[in-house]
């Protein structure tokens, strides 16, 4: 078989594949392709996206790198017709060509509206647009937060309208209101306002206004992004959406607590008119004062009517006063009648009790007097015997002590007589004898002073009747009674001529012992001191 000889250049597979790649990229470096998204399953683990763009006759592989996907304004969605801008290239590993997308946008207003409607249905199904979760707007906010562009006319219109209606404090959070990253900035501003703590260095807004001027649907698309809508729905501070003109609607209008047709309208909804408030307050004050005057006038008329209808104080009190007098008179008579019988019974019981107690007391007194009279001589004799016995015992102890001391002296004298001069010994014995003699005389004086005879020797006397009973009171004797008066040197017999009761009774010294003094009559005894004994009181004798 003959080998075919040709001058065609021979390529390897790799050389041909890369040659095709260079050719395609050089000729289709920047293209725009319109087609329906098919096979989109989201980003892979590496962050890149792979899908196809197709029409009714062909399909084209598409890829979006991770860095491009993050800054795309419109994300691909399966079944949505979109316009992709990028460059064509080939993948030598599978002999396929594909478009590397750098920009992606819906294919016309119809596609955008379809995407917007699909997103609205999704967020509504999650409950982000429910009326139950919307918060009331405060009537008079102290601080208003505004999320908008700081250089546009919107912020000037809002500030001017607030200054005309009700000047208040405004915090502006500057953001981009269109283009790539605008939705993220709006969401960050809303979360930033909500993160402000009450009472901190920066005042926390009472209401937030999200505002932007009018524009096309593409210009307002940042306020349709899901991140911005969710931030509005999650805000704990009430929000007012004021995006575009009155005919423009975005998704944050559904998620906000209140929608304003324009940014100026949002300022009007945020605060009331101060002049109207002042006028309303003044009117309410006047109405209140008028109502109070009318109320007081009505109450005054009612009071006067009641005063005329009421009887006088004298008429009101006449019947109760008469009843009180009648009842008081009957009460006095009834009390006197009711107390007569108890009083008589009480007097009877008191008389019987007094007689019974008097008789019993008299018996007790007589019994006490008899016992006292029997006991006094024995006590006197016993007391004298006890004193004599103690004096004798003391004298014996003194004598024994003196004898013992004398023996000691004699022993000492015998022991030292050989060494001392006899004259010195005699003087010592004489001094010692004088000392002990003085001691003996002192004890003898004490004995004589304490004895009953010594008491009588000082001028006192013991008066007894003929039965030997001591006389303590003038009431024990009567005129003509015979008495015996014992003095220091004997006894004297006397008769009683008369007796007086003492005004004072004091127990002083031995009973019935008094100085015996002559009063001019030898047979009359007049005691100088008398001590009547009370019932229940003891006596020395």
What this model shows, in words?
The protein has 541 residues and is an alpha/beta fold. It folds into five domains: 13-106, OB fold (Dihydrolipoamide Acetyltransferase, E2P) (Beta Barrel), CATH 2.40.50.140; 132-272, Rossmann fold (3-Layer(aba) Sandwich), CATH 3.40.50.261; 276-310; 363-450, no CATH class; 452-541, no CATH class. Helix content is 48%, strand content 15%. Strands 1-2-3-5-4 form a five-stranded mixed β-barrel. A five-stranded parallel sheet has the order 7-6-8-9-10, sandwiched between helices. It has a three-stranded antiparallel sheet with strand order 11-12-13, with no helix packed on it. The relative contact order is 0.05. Residues 502-541 have low confidence and may be disordered.
Rg over alpha carbons: 71 Å
Determine the mean pLDDT: 79
Structural class: alpha/beta
Which percent range describes the beta-strand content?
15-25%
Key features of this structure:
13 strands; five-stranded mixed beta barrel; five-stranded parallel beta sheet; 541 residues; 5 domains; 12 helices; alpha/beta; OB fold (Dihydrolipoamide Acetyltransferase, E2P)
Give a brief description:
The chain has 541 residues and is of the alpha/beta class.
What is the strand and helix layout of this fold?
Layout: H1 13-27, E1 31-38, E2 49-54, E3 59-64, H2 66-70, E4 81-91, E5 96-106, H3 108-125, E6 143-148, H4 153-165, E7 169-174, H5 182-195, E8 207-212, H6 226-234, E9 239-243, H7 251-255, E10 258-259, H8 263-270, H9 274-309, H10 313-416, H11 422-450, H12 452-457, E11 462-465, E12 482-487, E13 490-495
Parallel strand pairs: 3-5, 6-7, 6-8, 8-9, 9-10
Antiparallel strand pairs: 1-2, 1-4, 2-3, 4-5, 11-12, 12-13
């Amino acid at each position: 078989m003959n080998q075919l000889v040709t001058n065609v250049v021979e390529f390897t597979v790799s050389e041909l594949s890369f040659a095709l790649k260079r050719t395609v990229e050089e000729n289709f470096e920047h293209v725009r392709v319109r087609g329906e998204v098919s096979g989109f399953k989201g980003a892979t683990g590496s962050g890149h996206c792979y899908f196809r763009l197709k029409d009714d006759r062909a399909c084209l592989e598409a890829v979006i790198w991770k860095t491009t996907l993050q800054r795309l304004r419109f994300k691909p969605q399966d079944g949505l017709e979109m316009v992709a801008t990028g460059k064509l290239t080939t993948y030598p590993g599978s002999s396929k060509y594909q478009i590397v997308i750098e920009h992606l946008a819906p294919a016309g207003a119809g596609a955008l509206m379809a995407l917007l409607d699909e997103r609205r249905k999704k967020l509504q199904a999650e409950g982000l647009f429910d009326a139950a979760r919307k918060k009331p707007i405060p009537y008079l906010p102290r601080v208003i937060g505004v999320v908008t562009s700081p250089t546009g006319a919107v912020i000037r219109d809002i500030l001017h309208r607030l200054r005309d209606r009700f000047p208040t404090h405004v915090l502006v959070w500057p953001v981009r209101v269109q283009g790539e990253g605008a939705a993220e900035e709006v969401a960050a501003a809303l979360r930033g306002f909500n993160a402000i703590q009450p009472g901190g260095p920066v005042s926390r807004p009472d209401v937030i206004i999200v505002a932007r001027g009018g524009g096309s649907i593409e210009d307002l698309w940042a306020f349709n992004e899901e991140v911005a809508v969710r931030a509005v729905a999650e805000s704990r501070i009430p929000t007012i959406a004021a995006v575009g003109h009155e005919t423009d609607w975005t998704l944050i209008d559904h998620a906000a607590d209140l929608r304003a047709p324009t940014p100026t309208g949002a300022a009007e909804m945020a605060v009331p008119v101060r002049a109207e408030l002042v006028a309303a307050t003044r009117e309410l004050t006047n109405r209140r004062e008028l109502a109070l005057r009318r109320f007081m006038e009505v109450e005054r008329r009612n009071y006067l009517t009641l005063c005329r209808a009421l009887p006088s104080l004298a008429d009101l009190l006449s019947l109760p006063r008469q009843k009180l007098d009648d009842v008081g008179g009957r009460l006095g008579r009834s009390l006197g009648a009711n107390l007569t019988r108890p009083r008589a019974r009480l007097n009877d019981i008191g008389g019987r009790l007094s007689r019974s107690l008097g008789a019993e007391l008299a018996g007790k007194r007589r019994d006490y007097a008899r016992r006292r009279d029997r006991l006094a001589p024995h006590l006197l004799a016993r007391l004298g015997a006890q004193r004599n016995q103690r004096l004798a015992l003391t004298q014996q102890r003194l004598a024994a002590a003196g004898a013992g001391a004398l023996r000691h002296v004699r022993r000492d004298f015998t022991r030292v007589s050989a060494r001392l001069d006899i004259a010195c010994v005699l003087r010592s014995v004489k001094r010692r004898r004088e000392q002990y003699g003085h001691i003996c005389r002192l004890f003898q004086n004490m004995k004589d002073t304490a004895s009953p005879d010594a008491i009588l020797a000082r001028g006192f006397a013991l008066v007894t009747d003929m039965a030997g009973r001591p006389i303590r009171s003038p009431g024990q004797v009567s005129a003509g009674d015979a008495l015996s008066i014992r003095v220091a040197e004997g006894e004297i017999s006397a008769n009683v001529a008369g007796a007086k009761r003492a005004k004072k009774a004091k127990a002083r010294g031995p009973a019935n012992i008094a100085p015996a003094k002559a009063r001019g009559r030898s047979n009359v005894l007049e005691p100088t001191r008398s001590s009547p004994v009370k019932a229940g009181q003891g006596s020395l004798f």
